[in-house]
Design goal:
alpha+beta
């Protein structure tokens, strides 16, 4: 008995085939082999053709079936993770009307900002838990305003994961988690926000039927089954955006648990047990995968744009021939606090945590007679860690009692300095696991058809690689270094 998980990213589409009884991943594949193209007709625009996601999914599905020798009838459920905040529009025949406006497209920012002012900050934050910002609802409003003839032909709008489920089943549906990330969901009233729809002039009929995040949402139809080598009727029983799904993949379900990633950008995603928001909208709050009308489970998401990209920039300064392992060894020669050198890692666009102020990376405290490349490398990693800590403090201010941090053993979490610095400044253990989003989505599908009793049953086989405990002897050094970093941040924002 097997479970199939998909992760629909903007760079690639990944498929993972998981053996249900022991949670072991038996085959994985991703397409394309190089990064998928993003269409940018104008500055700030970012689009992809949804048909390309289906083509990549087709190749990945056939690949994992060929690798494993598993037959379609042996797959008992399908789960989907996907790039968040995108917009897909289809007509009555379920044909795509235009390229998807994806997560990193910024054309709708002015419309979201106007909605925030017109609807009122108090209303948006207390009901939607976010500014309409640059999310799916604002992107749909942009289509309505700028492409009225196309807009008039829209039958349903979907997020990228909803579209993939539709291609598999022929049915349009979505989830509360998905609607919340599109900023359509009213958390106070427990329904799609009519006020938001009315303001943007969006008809409620464009929103697909709402299904539970876990449960049989639809089933693979005959056409998709024949095309992919699956069995007709296989249930699609789980779907979530990539960051909530990353938390699920790390078995982060309960209040106070944090899931973190640190690739080109970095994410701290914490679970909150009550409906709340940051009054300054420095973090985003969405429904977590296990949120229901009866159980508040919210995912509070902090994104730092300048994470791995800062580390790679520093590497280029030292010479591309140096490996990251060598850079980590160099940085380890410097004590905690980098002997006074401080780096603010904000050089990859406006940061929401800084309330979208224009920002740039800055390096301070350098003494030409004392400091060298090793200091810069350590200060860069500490600067990223301190930005994560700043976000954790925002979450604490929202009422989150943070207990632990979980992360995949990848990207910057491969660095011992990064891991120990985050554990040290946060005073929290960091648990590292061997997992990925597609495998997590497969196990989510198993939860959706009751193969697993609960999340602990589903993720009991999750492979923990290491636990990094905070070093009590260095706690004051981390506190002092973080204090200097906060002072520098305060100066830069004044």
């Amino acid at each position: 008995m097997y479970l199939l998980g998909y992760d629909i990213g903007s760079s690639s589409v990944k498929a993972s085939l998981v053996k249900a009884d022991d949670g072991r991943c038996v085959a994985q594949a991703f397409y394309p082999g190089s990064e998928a193209p993003i269409i940018a007709v104008k500055p700030g625009w970012a689009e992809q053709d949804p048909e390309s996601w289906w083509q990549y999914l087709t190749l990945a599905t056939r690949d994992v079936l060929a690798q494993s020798g598993v037959k379609g009838e042996e797959i008992k459920a399908i789960g989907i993770s996907y790039q968040m905040h995108g917009l897909v529009c289809v007509d009555r025949d379920l044909n795509v009307l235009r390229h998807s406006i994806i997560w990193c497209d910024s054309r709708a920012v002015p419309l979201g900002n106007r909605a925030f002012a017109a609807l009122g900050e108090d209303f948006c934050l207390s009901h939607l838990l976010n500014s309409p910002g640059n999310f799916t609802a604002a992107k749909l409003a942009w289509v309505r305003e700028n492409e009225p003839s196309l807009y008039s032909r829209i039958h349903k709008i979907m997020l990228p994961g909803d579209y993939i489920a539709m291609r598999l089943s022929g049915e349009c549906c979505t989830t509360i988690e998905g609607l919340s990330e599109g900023i359509f969901w009213d958390f106070k009233r427990g329904e799609v926000s009519q006020e938001l729809l009315d303001y943007f002039g969006i008809d409620r009929s464009l929103i697909p039927e709402i299904k539970p995040t876990f449960g049989i949402q639809s089933r693979v139809n005959a056409d998709a089954a024949a095309h992919l080598g699956l069995q007709e009727g296989t249930p699609i029983s789980y779907r979530a955006g990539d960051q909530p799904n990353n938390a699920l993949s790390l078995n982060v379900f309960e209040p106070g648990e944090i899931a973190s990633t640190a690739g080109t950008s970095g994410v701290v995603y914490g679970v909150l047990g009550e409906v709340n928001y940051d009054p300054r909208s420095r973090v985003n709050t969405f429904a977590h995968v296990n949120h229901t009308p009866a159980l508040n489970r919210l995912g509070v998401l902090l994104c730092i744009n300048g994470t791995g990209i800062l580390n790679s920039w520093m590497r280029r300064l030292l010479g591309a021939e140096m490996s990251y392992a060598q850079i980590n060894e160099l940085a380890a020669q410097v004590p905690v606090g980098s002997e006074g050198v401080t780096v603010l890692p904000f050089g990859n666009g406006a940061e929401r945590m800084l309330e979208n102020r224009p920002s740039a990376c800055s390096i301070s405290g350098v003494d030409f007679n004392q400091h060298g490349p090793a200091h810069l490398m350590r200060a860069a990693q500490e600067g990223i860690v301190f930005s994560f800590m700043h976000g954790i403090e925002i979450m604490k201010g929202m009422g989150m009692e943070v207990k632990r941090i979980r992360a995949g053993h990848a990207n910057m979490f491969l660095s011992p300095i990064f891991r120990s610095s985050l554990a040290g400044v946060a005073g929290l253990p960091i648990e590292l696991y061997n997992t990925d989003g597609a495998a997590g989505a497969a196990k989510g599908a198993g939860m959706g058809v009751d193969i697993y009793h609960d999340n602990n049953d589903a993720f009991g086989s999750l492979e923990k690689i290491a636990t990094i405990e905070p070093c009590a002897a260095q706690s004051q050094q981390y506190a002092d270094a973080y204090g200097r970093w906060c002072e520098q941040l305060k100066k830069s924002c004044s």
